[in-house]
C-alpha cells in the first residue's frame, strides 16, 4: 500500500504542475523527488530545514509556501515556464541563468570534493585529474569545460551513500558535495573520520571559505520582475555578481529574499540550521 501511494504521488507530479493564479498568495517551491536529509524528506514527507525556513519567510510577507516534488528534468522545465517559483539551493549555471535569477537564501554553504582515500589531498580543482561523477541534470555537467583535466560521467539519483559505493566500484574518481550533507552523513553514520570508510574529503578544493547559498528564482514566475543592470560588464563572464538584470524591489521575489535576509540577521536561520545539523 505504501509503495502504491508513492507511485500515485509520482504519477500525479509527472502529469502536471498547476501554477498559482495571479491573486493566489502562494509561493511554489520545487524540489526533485528524492530526499536530501535533513534539508528535505522524500516525496511523501517534505519535513526538513527547507520547509521550515521558506514557510516562515513566506509567512512574513503574507504568503503560504507550497512544495511540489517532481523529477529534476521536469522541475527545470516548470521553472523555465514559470509554473514553479523557485528552487531552494542552486549553484550558478550559464545555461540555467536564462530562466533563473540567483538570490541568497540566508544559509551558508561550501562545496567540497569527495574521493577515495588513495587520492592525494587536492587544494585546487585545477589539480584534479580523472572522472567527476555528476547526477543527471546537474549544473556540474559544464565543469569539464571549466576544468579540462576532468571528464564527466552521469549517474542517476545520487545520495552520498550511492556516491561512495560508486567511487569504490570505480565508476568515477570524484564527486562534488555540499559540506552540510557531508557533515550530516558523518554524524548520521557516527564516523570519527571519513578515512575510517576509505574516503577523503578535500575541503579546500573548490571553496576556501563558506559562501552564501542561493535559491534560483524563476525569471518567468508571476512573482518576479526585473530591470536592466546598468552595472553589468559585457566584457566579463556572466555570473551572480555580473548579471544582465537586477530584481525589481517591488516584486514578491525581492520581498521574499528580504524576509530571508532579515531572518539571517536576527539569528532565526542559524537556530533552524542548528536544529537540523548540530
UniProtKB/TrEMBL annotation:
Gene3D superfamilies: Periplasmic binding protein-like II. Residues 156-278 form the Solute-binding protein family 3/N-terminal domain. The keyword Cytoplasm does not apply. PANTHER family: GLUTAMINE-BINDING PERIPLASMIC PROTEIN, MEMBRANE-BOUND LYTIC MUREIN TRANSGLYCOSYLASE F. Keywords: Signal. The keyword Signal applies. Belongs to the bacterial solute-binding protein 3 family. This is Solute-binding protein family 3/N-terminal domain-containing protein.
